[in-house]
Design brief:
Number of strands: 25
Number of domains: 3
CATH architecture of the largest domain: 4-Layer Sandwich
Strand order of the largest sheet: 3-2-4-1-10-9-11-15
Largest sheet: 8 strands, antiparallel
Structural class: alpha/beta
Radius of gyration: 25 Å
CATH superfamily of the largest domain: Aminohydrolase, N-terminal nucleophile (Ntn) domain
Shape: globular
Bound molecules: fructose -6-phosphate
CATH class of the largest domain: Alpha Beta
């Protein structure tokens, strides 16, 4: 979703800002812009489309030691040059970039700005006009900025320039992520550390409703009352090479290939010196104290949560409910007496999940966040965190985070079971090792998946994924991958459910991708395949060794049946990847999607 960068220092900011925006491209956007401030004023360049399009219109002759930049994912107003950021106040004195949604923008416009002529349809323009309005009323810039913030309802990360002050970037945040990066003779602002890793790895976290005055030599954090807050910086543990594509054509395929490595990293990180899997005793205590676990998540993370339910119920014998975050906020089920909430979120910033976290924390319940991003909002605000250790995931379509989420959930289930002396009939460390090897085999079979993808998906307008038990959950993920990057309309179904309505959609040649990795339902899922084949469907069966039959298109290596999602998803990720390539789709940046969904 929207991304923000800012620079103030001794160097020309233009290239630093553009490179920073390129690093934020993965979050998803539809337009971009920068504002460069020098002795001649503030120069704004913005364009609909990609950063590459923005580069073409930025005047190479403009140099500036202070600037801000933005990638926009449209919420209020269509994607267009006019609606893209930065936005300027009526007199052009103030220039602002914003990430988030101002819910009461219409009210503020009517209440304070009825005489102002607006250029865009955005909520952001209201904020910058309000700042100017209060300055015109006699407040200092800082006072006007603070006053404006007190009136805003909703989420925001803001960076503001004042044409009369070349020494300061004003910054604030509420609910939307924003960091300040520290350098020698310069400071930067960024939605995430990756954007500015090119110039610094030293960052200061900002909390909601703080105001920050950033100059080239100083960063002053204040609360809304104007009191100064001291906060220590931290070092961003990111390797610059982690966020480069290297020799890969796309981040998605790089991240699919990284899955064996991530499995091994997770095993190592969660092992103690005796080689046993271990998790902070407070987290295990919270699991054992709870009478029901509520997993809350969105999208791919929700799909991982469904597999997590199976793991926790089977291994640790604690009942689990899995909920879609955006529904849970408004439609909360009757809770058990001692619930524990688990938030699964790759980014740690998803607004829908955060809204639930805030609500259940307000009700006094305990919460654990499972995330890939240390220091992210959901990590900070929950009682406990478990990290995925998957390395930055840049492609919009989540792959390695999904398998990492399932692996961490399996470890949580195992350690909880052991703490209660519940016998787990397999050695998880050993099984995860086997899975890492099996993942390698699958990643080495790319040509086959390219072929399957061409055969089944190159011309179709829709596709169905069917499975039973955990295979069904993986089908939900496989269909999500396919639709988000190839735009083929794809749905995942429980094998037995298809004939209760959806089978009406099966026509001659409709591709059906079926998973058959569960012994107890192997014959029934094959029966479901026969039902659709009888109506003309073109079946692609992916089975597990030992359960395979002659008609199968691909056989995955044998792993423990509770853990099959960790590998059965890889063929589906690869098939989706190649389907997108065959259709000339922008694999890493699919249309309309954002990586970090920071609005509800
Ligand atoms: C799909 C995908 C999304 C995310 C969802 C939640 O490939 O990545 O469905 O899973 O937006 O995001 P996180 O996990 O960051 O909370």
């Amino acid at each position: 979703m929207c991304g923000i960068v800012g620079y103030i220092g001794n160097k020309d900011s233009k290239e630093i800002l553009l490179k920073g925006l390129e690093k934020l491209e993965y979050r998803g956007y539809d337009s971009a812009g920068i504002a460069l401030q020098n002795g001649h004023g503030i120069h704004v360049f913005k364009e609909k489309g990609r950063i590459a399009d923005l580069r073409k219109i930025v005047d190479g002759n403009v140099t500036a030691h202070i600037g801000i930049g933005h990638t926009r994912w449209a919420t209020h107003g269509v994607p267009s040059k006019t609606n893209s950021h930065p936005h300027q106040s009526a007199s052009d004195r103030f220039t602002l970039v914003h990430n988030g949604v101002i819910e009461n923008y219409d009210f503020l416009k009517r209440e304070y700005l009825s005489n102002v002529e607006f250029k865009s349809e955005t909520d952001t323009e209201v904020v910058v006009q309000l700042i100017e309005f209060f300055v015109n009323e006699g407040l200092t810039v800082l006072e006007a900025f603070r006053k404006t913030l007190t009136l805003l309802h909703g989420s925001y990360a803001l960076a503001l320039l004042d044409a009369k002050d070349r020494e300061t970037i004003y910054v604030a945040k509420n609910k939307s992520p924003l960091l300040v990066g520290l350098g020698d003779g310069f400071n930067v602002v960024a939605s995430d550390a990756m954007a500015m890793l090119q110039v610094t790895d030293k960052y200061v976290e900002l909390m909601d409703k703080e105001v920050v005055i950033v100059t080239k030599d100083q960063v002053t954090i204040q609360n809304l009352a104007g009191e100064t807050i001291n906060r220590k910086p931290y070092k961003a543990e990111l390797d610059a090479s982690d966020i480069e594509k290297g020799t890969y054509p796309h981040y998605m395929i790089k991240e699919i290939d990284e899955q064996p490595l991530v499995m091994r990293k997770i095993i190592q990180t969660y092992q103690n010196e005796q080689g046993e899997l271990t998790i902070d005793s407070e987290i295990i205590g919270a699991m054992n104290d709870s009478d029901r676990v509520y997993i809350v998540a969105a999208g791919t993370s929700y799909n991982a949560g469904l597999v997590g339910k199976q793991l926790i119920e089977n291994m640790a014998k604690i009942p689990v409910e899995v909920h879609i975050a955006s529904e849970f906020v408004y439609n909360m089920p009757l809770l058990s007496k001692k619930p524990l909430f688990i938030f699964i979120t790759q980014s740690g910033e998803t607004a829908d999940s955060r809204a639930v976290l805030v609500k259940v924390k307000g009700m006094g319940y305990r919460a654990l966040t499972i995330t890939n991003v240390p220091g992210s909002t959901l990590s900070r605000e929950a009682d406990y965190t478990l990290l995925l250790h998957a390395g930055p995931e840049i492609a919009v379509a989540s792959t390695k985070a999904y398998t990492a989420q399932i692996a961490v959930l399996s470890i949580l289930a195992e350690v909880t079971a052991k703490s209660q002396n519940i016998k787990v009939d397999f050695d998880l460390v050993h099984e995860l090792g086997i899975i890492a090897n099996a993942m390698e085999v699958l990643c080495d079979s790319k040509e086959l998946f390219e072929h399957i993808s061409r055969e089944f998906l190159s011309v179709t307008r829709n596709a169905f994924f069917i499975g039973r038990g955990v295979d069904y959950y993986v089908c939900l993920e496989g269909s999500l991958k396919l639709k988000e990057i190839s735009y083929i309309q794809a749905e995942g179904f429980a094998g037995g459910e298809l004939k209760h309505g959806t089978i009406a959609l099966i026509e001659e040649g409709t591709p059906i991708i079926a998973l058959a990795t569960q012994e107890s339902v192997n014959l029934s899922i094959r029966g479901n395949v026969k039902e659709v084949v009888a109506r003309g469907a073109n079946p692609c069966i992916i089975s597990m060794k030992g359960l395979n039959m002659d008609e199968d298109s691909f056989i995955i290596p044998e792993v423990h049946e509770l853990l099959t999602p960790l590998i059965s998803v890889i063929p589906l990720q690869l098939i989706a990847y190649y389907a997108a390539l065959h259709r000339d789709c922008d694999v890493d940046k699919p249309r309309n999607l954002a990586k970090s969904v920071t609005v509800e």
